Amino acid sequence: MSRIIWLVILGIVVLLQFIPSVRPDNVQNNHYDLVVNNNVPDSVVNLLKTSCYDCHSNISEYPWYSYVAPVSWLVARDVRLGKEELNFSNWESLDRMKKAKLLDDIVEEVSDGGMPLQIYPLMHPEAKLKKSDRQMIVDWAESYAESLFE
């Protein structure tokens, strides 16, 4: 009986692979990208690209597990929602007030540990932000927000 149950479970897992996850496509030409068009310190660029860009840009690196259902659906959902909230690849298309609001959101989310999502560094240990990394991003975001209105 347990063998039949395992075969049914295996069959269900195989069938799930045929349901598409609709991952957002990557776009290679991002002329409006934050780091392309602004003087962002290299240390901050590295942190943003390592800890933020997979969900908050048009350049997502999809690991092997993002192609296996049902995890693929969760990854696609998280990336889609992340880009809706903040997409660094579209940064220069935003007005000054929207940029200031997003920078304020970055300060809040990064300083309180809300970003990156807690699950992300589990599979991407390089994305784990130390306290000093968080402070570096916060200091940069605050400084950049101030410079928008000078």
Q: Strand tally, please?
A: 0
How many domains, as an integer? 1
Beginning-to-end CA distance, first to last residue: 73 Å
Determine the fraction of residues in helical runs and give it as a percent range: 55-70%
Mean pLDDT: 89
Descriptive key words:
mainly alpha
Write the SSE topology.
Blueprint: H1 2-16, H2 34-37, H3 42-51, H4 53-56, H5 71-85, H6 96-111, H7 120-123, H8 131-147
Q: What does this protein look like?
A:
By secondary structure, the chain is an all-alpha fold. It has one domain (2-147). The chain has helices at residues 2-16, 34-37, 42-51, 53-56, 71-85, 96-111, 120-123, 131-147. The longest helix is centred in the C-terminal third of the chain and has 17 residues, at 131-147. 21% of the residues are buried. The model has no long low-confidence stretch (mean pLDDT 89).
Summarize the structure.
With 150 residues, the chain is mostly helical. The chain contains 8 helices and no strands.
